[in-house]
Amino acid sequence: RKEVEQDPGPFNVPEGATVAFNCTYSNSASQSFFWYRQDCRKEPKLLMSVYSSGNEDGRFTAQLNRASQYISLLIRDSKLSDSATYLCYLKAAGNKLTFGGGTRVLVKP
Amino acid sequence: DAGVTQSPTHLIKTRGQQVTLRCSPISGHKSVSWYQQVLGQGPQFIFQYYEKEERGRGNFPDRFSARQFPNYSSELNVNALLLGDSALYLCASSLVAALDTEAFFGQGTRLTVV
Fold first, then answer.
1. CA gap B64, B91 in Å, rounded
2. What are the pLDDT digits (tens) for B26-43?
3. Could you tell me the maximum CA-CA distance found in chain B, to the nearest angstrom?
4. Which residues in chain A have Cβ-Cβ distances shorter than 8 Å to B58?
């Protein structure tokens, strides 16, 4: 089993719709969580950190469920520009830094 | 302010050769980490350095090595290149090496081994 798993997608989303996807992890020592977005053949860019109580940044909402060991990202009112691959990134004690394989989102008019 | 800069942006090498990739972190950032991203996959952690010391290492063979300089820039070296080493190599910098610190990525070096 992979340490960090994401549904690779693609998630085909109509413009204006809501989409949500998860990232599950097996290392219970994971302490810090982040979502990055990556456009085709570009570097990952930080989207948001994920806090224990959940957090929101505009149309984006991130949640952490430690009991079930997953984080989630919800995108409301999807824009064409939201089309990208979304990567979860986890940090665990001992400086274990792990990315998921990414979830591809395609927003269509 | 300049972000993370990596050089070169593209590189073609032959099997068996050695390569050195360079990274300059954001000004004031003291931690650098390296990742390998094969097409269609997420980045894989190679090394993390903080204050010139190795702080973490991923599951990569000893052909991969790195170092960090007093100005916090870093080099990644790969010896005896294999075709499978072809990938995008990403460098990320962060203020410190603490777990809750956000990491910012450079544009990467695209290495092709032929």
1. 14
2. 999 999 999 999 999 999
3. 39
4. 97
Q: Count A/B contacts: CB-CB distance under 8 Å.
A: 55
Smallest CA–CA distance from A96 into chain B, residue: B56
pLDDT digits (tens, 9 = 90+) for A57-67: 999 999 999 99
- DSSP label at residue B98: -
pLDDT in tens, A83-107: 999 999 999 887 788 999 999 999 9
* Sign of the C-alpha dihedral computed for residues B48, B50, B55 and B61 taken in this order: positive
Q: Which residue in chain B is spatially nearest to A44 when comparing CA positions?
A: B105
Q: How near does any CA of chain A get to the CA of B16, in Å?
A: 26
d(Cα A27, Cα A93) in Å, to the nearest integer?
10
> What local confidence, expressed as pLDDT, does residue B112 receive?
98
